[in-house]
Design goal:
Helix content: over 70%
Low-confidence stretches: none
Largest sheet: none
Shape: globular
Order of helices and strands: HHHHHHHHHHHHH
Number of strands: 0
Number of helices: 13
Distance between the termini: 56 Å
Mean pLDDT: 86
């Protein structure tokens, strides 16, 4: 690669967009090749391909993100669009409203408390403990919560992504092992534990599960934003 071309790649915002779309397309082919196997999750494979590509090209995250931030901007409209399949399941939502809301509150509190207690048990530094606390919320909320309670926002974002990938890989096999085959249960459990990455995964399995995962993801973020500062202060005091 000539120096001129290399510098153009480093400076152009199109590089980030191209690498993201290419990684997603390859990851999607891998997922279809293995019939949606959890380990062939598109986010897991795509993130791995992107990391390898950035290392091979010598691009920093900031250089990559100049273009990829445009794709991140599209997350907002996509999240709002999750309301459409949920509206199609309005009758099931009304029947299960209390159980869903109770699960989200309990799941959010458990997510924050378990992260803090496990981190403390392993004697992790305080800033890592505080960055781990909101790991089950969606990325923008987790970054805001981590910043508010004294954590490191970028580290919190990394924990969120890892949590989402693990949840996306394990949610369906775990519920199958427990013989829970209801789409609402799958969606709510995945949305609470694995936010947007898990939601994208269960949408591949069932539109109903994806709709309820989107609902659970949004409400878990809200509950986490309210509960996390109070719960972290209580557990660490």
């Amino acid at each position: 690669m000539t120096p001129t071309l290399y510098e153009w790649l480093r400076q152009s915002p199109l590089t980030g967009i191209f690498l993201t779309l290419l990684a997603y397309r390859v990851a999607l082919s891998v997922s279809r090749r293995y019939h949606g196997h959890p380990l062939a999750n598109t986010v897991l494979v795509g993130a791995g391909l992107l990391i390898v590509s950035l290392l091979a090209l010598g691009l920093s995250f900031d250089e990559y993100f100049r273009g990829a931030s445009f794709i991140q901007f599209l997350l907002g409209p996509v999240t709002v669009a999750l309301a459409i399949p949920l509206y199609n399941n309005l009758a099931r939502l009304k029947r299960s409203a209390f159980a869903i809301l109770s699960s989200i509150v309990v799941g959010s509190v458990t997510g924050v408390a378990s992260a803090v207690l496990i981190a403390v048990a392993f004697d992790m530094p305080p800033q890592i403990v505080l960055s781990l606390a909101p790991r089950s919320a969606t990325t923008p909320i987790a970054i805001g919560v981590a910043e508010a309670i004294g954590g490191i926002p970028t580290l919190a974002a990394a924990f969120v992504i890892v949590t989402g990938i693990i949840g996306a890989v394990l949610a369906k096999p775990l519920l199958t092992l427990l013989r829970m085959n209801d789409d609402v249960v799958l969606g709510v459990a995945t949305g609470i534990a694995a936010h947007g990455i898990g939601t994208a995964r269960v949408f591949q399995i069932s539109e109903t599960a994806g709709a309820f995962a989107g609902l659970a993801m949004g409400l878990t973020g809200f509950v986490t934003a309210v509960v996390a500062p109070l719960l972290v202060h209580f557990l660490l005091s």
